Request: fold
Amino acid sequence: MGIQFLPVPRAATSSDVFNAIAEPRRRDILAFLVLSERPVGDIVVALRLGQPSVSKHLKVLRSVGLVHVRREGRQMLYRTNVDAIRPLHDWTLTFERFWRHGLARIKARAEEKTDR
Reply:
């Protein structure tokens, strides 16, 4: 009898920053909000997404702390929480040495071939 693997449930998108940004539209929203706070309507228009979809994505981003919200009268204004993105940046830096080394090897090989 072979080994039987049980399905591993996928972590909820709202469980951590990495799962939350796995969705490309959420990354688009974060990038859009990085320069200034905006209401949902601006996000909808700029990214050409439906309002319910944007609200759902913002809820996930808020639940993991990637987005701050501020009420101004009847309007909710959202902005990227750049401090919460720091762990993502730090994590990707662990791979920078690998990428740099790989690019250096490619460059050396290319230069080697042109010298011949």
